[in-house]
Structure formats: C-alpha cells, structure tokens
Amino acid sequence: MSGGLWREWMKHRTVLWVAFAVVHLSVAVLGWVLPNYPMGDVYLVYEPWADAAVDGREIVGITTPFVYPQLALVPMILARALAWLGGYIIAWSILVTALNAVAFALLIGRARSRARVSAAWFWLAYALLLGPIGMYRIDAVTVPLAVAGLLWLAGRPAVATVLLAVGTWIKIWPAALIAASVVVLRRRLTVIASAALVTALVLGGVIVLGGWAHAFDFIGEQTGRGLQLEAPVSTFYLWQAVAEIPGSFAFYDNDILTFQVTGPHVDIVIAVMTPLLAAAVAGVAGLGAYKAWHGASYVRLLPPLSLALVLVLIVFNKVGSPQFQTWLIAPLVLWIVLDRTRASTVAALSLVSAALTQVVYPIVYGGILNTQPVPVALLTARNTLTIVLLVITVTALVRVPTRSAAMVSARKRELRRFVSAR
Questions:
Q1: Can you tell me the distance from the alpha carbon of 377 to that of 187, in angstroms, rounded to the nearest whole number?
Q2: pTM score above 0.85
Q3: Which of 188, 228, 278, 419 has its CA 20 to 30 A from that of 222?
Q4: Which domain holds residue 227?
Q5: CA–CA separation, 333 and 325 (whole Å)
C-alpha cells in the first residue's frame, strides 16, 4: 500500500472507530490480567461508596468526608445502575468507554481534518500505552469532559466551561483548563460566570442535602496528605529507602488508602509542597497572562498554557497517582488539533511517559513497594520525563509570539528589504 493510500485509509472513520473499540476492549481486558489490582479502586472503593449512597447508609461528601469533590459520586452511582450488564467492573468500563465515544465523535467529526484525525490516533495510542489505570479510576470520567470542553471553548465558551466545571467537581484538575481559558479568551466573563453557575448549583445541592460541613473536605484531604510514593518529590526518599538509610521507607496509609514514603525532614517537605505548587501555578498563569495582554493568539497560547498548568499540577504535587497522566490527554489533543507541528515533540515524549507509567503501575509496582532498584529506576525515569515535558512546554509558552513582537519582526523584514533594494 502506497503512502498516500495508507494515509487515506488511516483517515477513514470506520478504521478510527474500529481502532477505538479495539483499544478500549484491550485496555479493559488488561485490567483483569495485569498484576497489582489495577481495577482495585473500582470494586474496593467506588462500588462500596455507591452501594452506601443508594442503600441510604451514608453519602460521601454529604454525610461523611470525601477525598473527591461531590460530583465524583455521580458516575459511581451510574456504574452501579449499569451493573446488570455483568457486574460493577464491567459497568464501569462501559461507562468510561461510552463517555469517551461521545468526545471521540466530537473530535473526529467526518474525519476530513488531518489534524483532528492525528489527534484521534494520538488519543488511542496514549490510552493503549497508559493501560488500565487510564480506565479504572475516577479521572477517566473527566478526560472526555475536558476534551469536549477544550474543543468547544472557542465557539461555545459557556457550554465548554460548564463541561470543564463539571469535570472540576468530579476531580479538581480541570480547574487548570478553566484558569487557562480565563487567561486566554476575550470572553473570559462568560467563562467565569459559567464556572460560577455550576459551582453554585453543586454547592446548593450539597446544602439542600445537609452536607455543607463536608462541602470542601476534598481540599483538606489533599493538602493534609503526606508524600505519595509515585510523586516526583518522593523520588529522593524512595532512593534513600533503596539505599536502606535509617528512617527512610515506604508504608501504607490506611486513612487515605495509598502508599507513601517517609524519611529525614519529610515534614518540612510536606509543608513546603502546597505553597510551592501554588507559586508554580501562579507563575505559569502569570506568564500566560503576560502573553495574552500583549496580543498572543488563541491558537498559539491556549494549548501550551493549558498543558503547562496541568503538568505543574503533576510535577509539584505531593500526590503522584499514576492516573494523573490521563490529565495530559485533553490539552495535547487540543494542541495537535490547533498546531500539530509544534505539538509533535511533546506528544511523542508523552507517549513514552504513558508507556513508562503502565510499566510502573501495575506491572512492576510490587518491586517499587519493596524498594527494588530497577523498578524504582523506571519510576524515576517516568518522573524525570514528566519534568522534561514541563520544561519543554514552558519553553514553548515563553516562545509564543505576541503582537508587539510580531510587529518588530515585520519592521525588521521591511528594513532588510529596504536596505537590499538600495
């Protein structure tokens, strides 16, 4: 098959949808066959929460504390309603696949745009390389909301922001995309008003249900956590544990149901990380605001700003769950759609990061828990690559041209032409 025919075949909608089905089925099956319980949160955490709410025993986020924003319980209950299809785990995978299908259809349209088709293939490749952690976590529900929200942002900012705000009230990370939208869009008041409306409706529902005391528990739950095993900042302590330095080791926290690390002066590091995260977010947002103020275009500014803010949330976070890598999908899809040439390097590196993440969890996760050198080295490589992605993205953000810079360049070209003409 010649190169031209191959490209046309790859653009065909039927091929894209067959690939979509194969990838999602493969990822769903991997959850059953890979080690270290990649589906554990679904049946050990989400299903009991949903059962308790439906049975009237307790409602997390309303009658008891909740580690997630309140709307996170909604997809958990929806999956329970679909459990008749084959159990809660299968129902969850069907729910995630259906949501992804809606966003995927919006992305490819009639498959006439080469950039959109490229973004679709990237999404499928990323999902396959990332593996079951990208499907069997609550973050999976927010990905299609974020993809659709970013694709609609320019033309339908109110609808787009509603989707992003709903995603934020499921898992907080899409707030970074809303922040980028406020910085870049001229219709920023529409973005702010739409996000405020969703927030008011959610909090109003929480108050009506009598859950005001737990309305913002998810913020306290996150800020009060220690250093999670997989977080970039934990790498230093993890290697100290490998070296068997006294006082440095990995352990399981029964309160928040996750593995953490500890070591000398860890409390100082824990205390510093949240202010450092806030400062990094403010710095990147400030850079984006400077570019927007000086006339940077939507097409050039929004993709790197969105991705940079999301990467900041990962790199400077003391929580480093492997599913955080799903957050990269939406801003990268947008970047490929709007400017695929400039997005190519970051997109390629992110695929490597996704593959490393699946190797880290669930494949060699047991070795990381036992602080074995090779598995820890793989995790270190993944974390290092995530930092590299942030550096490259911030560099791209710095290089986004502004209107004044473009005018200076135009004047220089005119001067050169004038001099050469003489």
A1: 46
A2: yes
A3: 188
A4: 3-421
A5: 14
